[in-house]
Amino acid sequence: MFTTNPILISTPLMERPNDTLITNKDPQLCTGTCLFEDHHQRLEGIIDEYTKQVILAINYCIVSTAINLGGTVTNIINIVVFIKQGFADRMNISLMGLAISDLGCLLTLQWMNLCFNPLFRFSPKIPFDSLEVQYITGGWPHACFARTTGLITAYITAERCLCIAAPLKVKTILTHKRTTFVIVIIFVLMFGSTAPIYSVNLLGPKFYPGDPPVWNRTLIGLVFTENRDQVEQITFALNNVFGYIAFLLVTIFTSVLVSKLRKNVRWRRDNAKSAISGGKQDVNALRDARVIKMVTSISTIFIVCFFPVTIIFIGIMAVPGLGLVGRYSNMFHVTCSFGFALETINSSVNLFVYLKMSSKFKATFDSVFRKRTLSNATV
User: Fold this and answer.
1) Where do transmembrane segments lie in this chain (predicted)?
2) CATH of the domain spanning 3-272+283-360
């Protein structure tokens, strides 16, 4: 969500054998090792190099990959169900956008996981440096989808809060066209804001010195332009602003929804006797309560999964040497690998929330998948 999570830990600035500090700024010579400090300085941190590599391999190649594969399936199911339901309910428009964004998060992250896999990364058959190539083919697209997920989640929670504050006006304020427009604008804004990255990070052939057969050969890698640092600093800052705004809004609106949900629970408890005795229940109020509960669950999962990344970002500003380079860079990479795993969970579990809390979604899911499965089994 922030610079520390979807982008920086996926940059080409990862260790290769015999890394050294390169100061040449020529765009044809500078590689991902340009910004690294001496290899031995990184070993002074809390986590040694071997431990770091083992944890990264487990988190990226096993944990995140396994969750990712399941999450890809669940989001495809979500998209199919929403298409089947149609978009007469404007909430389906927002949830459809969220499913697409989550699917984009997982697909780009899966490519990044593959590029981190040592069997793939150091294969002599691969004609490119996987860590450098995935920086612009996986890292930045993943960052865009992650921020898009955050902003769509913020919009969904804001819409529910508006339903509480102005229940009679919300349908005229948030029409289907306006909801669609907002979701599309979020996607366009996120990807448009990162477009300058592709003008300063180019792919081209470079010679990689080192021990054969992995290195000491020419591979496709990143070639930087002279103004790369300035452009990336501005783009990082802009994307961090979007990340902060999304996280802050989701937290605020979720707090409001939790408060409303508690009031609904008290209301249902106080009116239980009258309902049993034949009193007419407020069906709309019960439906709204279920929707609020579902949205609150989605946003709470988002907050829990992205909160550690927020702490990491604060730590970078507060602790000297904690970051891509510096004494505690190994700690940075390890903690961010756990952040990726949590982010994968956030993008994978919404299907189970919908099945648990939306009877309409569950009915459509059953009609599309379970009945089809039963008919195939009968045949």
Assistant:
1) 57-83, 95-120, 179-198, 241-259, 295-319, 331-355
2) 1.20.1070.10
Helix intervals (H) in the chain: 39-42, 49-58, 65-85, 90-116, 118-121, 130-134, 140-165, 170-173, 176-193, 197-200, 228-270, 272-276, 283-318, 329-346, 350-357, 359-365, 371-378
Domain ranges of the chain: 3-272+283-360
Radius of gyration for the alpha carbons in the chain, expressed in angstroms and rounded:
24
β-bridge mates for residue 202, sequence order: 223
Residues 6+ apart with CB under 8 A from 82: 92, 95, 96, 99
Q: 298, 299, 304: which is closest to 356 by C-alpha? A: 298
What are the tens digits of pLDDT across the range 271-321?
Answer: 655 554 444 455 666 677 788 889 999 999 999 998 887 787 777 777 777
- DSSP letter for 279, please: P
Beta strand ranges found along the chain (DSSP E): 201-208, 217-224
pLDDT at 287: 72
Interatomic CA distance for residues 61 and 151, integer angstroms? 28
Mean pLDDT, residues 46-58 = 86
Tell me if the bond preceding 212 is cis, omega within 30° of 0.
no
Distance CA 298, CA 292 (A): 10
Residue 178's CB: how many other CB atoms inside 10 A?
13
Q: Which amino acid is at 378?
A: T
- What does the block give as tokens for 49? 């190099």
- 326 forms bridges with which residues in the sheet? none
Give the distance from CA 130 to its chain's centroid.
21
**Closest among 4, 12, 3, 1 to 135, alpha carbons compared:** 12
